[in-house]
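Need a sequence for this fold. Nothing fancy.
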């Protein structure tokens, strides 16, 4: 069916949190203005909300510093996009659901089990559609893995191995200097980074339930005791900066001089247009210019999660900071009749009976789309959510409240296993998810 046939009218949305992800999702309205109009925004940062206002032509009376002022009004849009910092997801999600807004909620749902449960419960009670931004479920490669498993081509799945290579400088940017560096201020890294990945494994396993889970991990490298001799407290004032792979000067000024004005350079400029002066000033005074060994980070830089599913099927997830490629996930699915391997963007099936290897062609996002993140998955997720709202058909959303809650609870169970140094019996501790 032609995508345009889903839309009999222009949908209206509200944005709560006008940072990078809010900007990303709302770019759909720039590509398809006949389908979507951003009609209101709330963000405490003046530059962020003014940029959103300017980009989408939002009326001044609908530009707010806080979301409470919006939810206090009568419902005036079809859905709300919530892209606030992680620990501020629950209250707006619950409040807007009670007002009847459909919700696109950035992952993770929330930073506690109880808050996740409340969000799912309230959305179901108020009959609103909620889509947590597990964008990888919408990745053509990850969907194809799901389809192949369900087709029976590789027989019964016996084991899944999944690698999330975060990327050495990406980890330093986001989890050492950035918003997700400190568990008390945000959350633990498995939830912030890999709830995507636990969700994928659960989704691929289908009707098989995770029965037991264990996990090991720690912060190995980015600690004060590992600071190189002679290093300064800021990269711009460091005598050995040129010999450090985690130099903020190399990362931000280097990328700016190479022509990059987008992530991660744009992040440190607080929604203002990056200039060399602004980038330099940010490194002189802001958190992103700190020595990577002198930050208040405490989240794991490596973690493994081991899962045992119904019937003895197993899965392993590895998250590691120290990699060349950024979030270039690798997946192996081992079945009784064949195996799947997804490496460097290529998905192949090896058939044990014929000895033949099949490489799958994978669709990509439309060429004119600004939603290119996660290999085009950002587009496919947002487009699916839009179609679901336009047609009032929740089946077009691949991860409703129950699925999202289930995979989040597995993430919390894995972290409990790590911190308590034990195997968590999921069946006993999460009997009904």
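Here you go.
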């Amino acid at each position: 069916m032609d995508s345009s046939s889903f839309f009999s009218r222009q949908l209206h949305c509200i944005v709560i949190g006008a940072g990078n992800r809010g900007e990303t999702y709302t770019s759909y309205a720039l590509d398809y203005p006949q389908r979507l109009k951003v009609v209101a925004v709330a963000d405490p940062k003046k530059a962020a909300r003014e940029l959103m206002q300017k980009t989408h032509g939002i009326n001044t009376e609908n530009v707010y510093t806080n979301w409470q002022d919006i939810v206090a009004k009568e419902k005036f849009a079809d859905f709300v996009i919530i892209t606030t910092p992680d620990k501020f997801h629950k209250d707006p999600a619950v409040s807007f659901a009670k007002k009847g807004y459909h919700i696109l909620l950035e992952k993770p749902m929330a930073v506690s089990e109880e808050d996740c449960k409340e969000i799912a419960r309230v959305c179901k009670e108020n009959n609103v559609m909620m889509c947590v931004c597990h964008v990888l479920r919408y990745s053509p490669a990850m969907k194809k893995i799901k389809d192949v498993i369900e087709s029976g081509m590789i027989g019964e799945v016996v084991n899944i191995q999944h690698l999330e290579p975060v990327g050495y400088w990406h980890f330093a940017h986001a989890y050492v200097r950035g918003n997700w560096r400190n568990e008390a201020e945000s959350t633990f890294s498995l939830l912030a980074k890999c709830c995507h990945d636990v969700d994928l494994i659960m989704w691929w396993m289908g009707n098989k339930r995770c029965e037991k889970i264990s996990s090991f991990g720690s912060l190995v490298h980015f600690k004060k005791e590992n600071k190189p001799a002679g290093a300064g407290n800021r990269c711009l004032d460091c005598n050995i900066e040129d010999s450090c792979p985690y130099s903020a000067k190399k990362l931000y000024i280097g990328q700016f001089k190479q022509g990059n004005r987008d992530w991660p350079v744009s992040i440190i400029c607080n929604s203002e247009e990056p200039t060399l002066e602004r980038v330099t000033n940010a490194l002189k005074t802001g958190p992103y210019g700190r020595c990577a060994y002198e930050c208040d980070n405490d989240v794991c830089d490596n973690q493994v999660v081991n899962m045992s599913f119904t019937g003895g099927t197993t899965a392993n997830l590895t998250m590691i900071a120290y990699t060349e490629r950024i979030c270039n996930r690798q997946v192996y699915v081992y079945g009784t009749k064949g195996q799947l391997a997804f490496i460097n963007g290529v998905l192949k099936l090896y058939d044990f009976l014929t000895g033949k290897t099949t490489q799958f062609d994978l669709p990509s996002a439309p060429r004119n789309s600004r939603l290119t993140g996660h290999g085009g998955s950002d587009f496919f997720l947002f487009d699916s959510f839009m179609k679901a709202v336009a047609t009032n058909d929740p089946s077009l959303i691949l991860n409703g409240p129950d699925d999202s809650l289930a995979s989040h609870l597995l993430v919390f169970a894995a972290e409990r296993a790590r911190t308590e140094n034990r195997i968590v019996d999921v069946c006993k501790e999460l009997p009904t998810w």
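For context: The longest strand covers residues 157-165.
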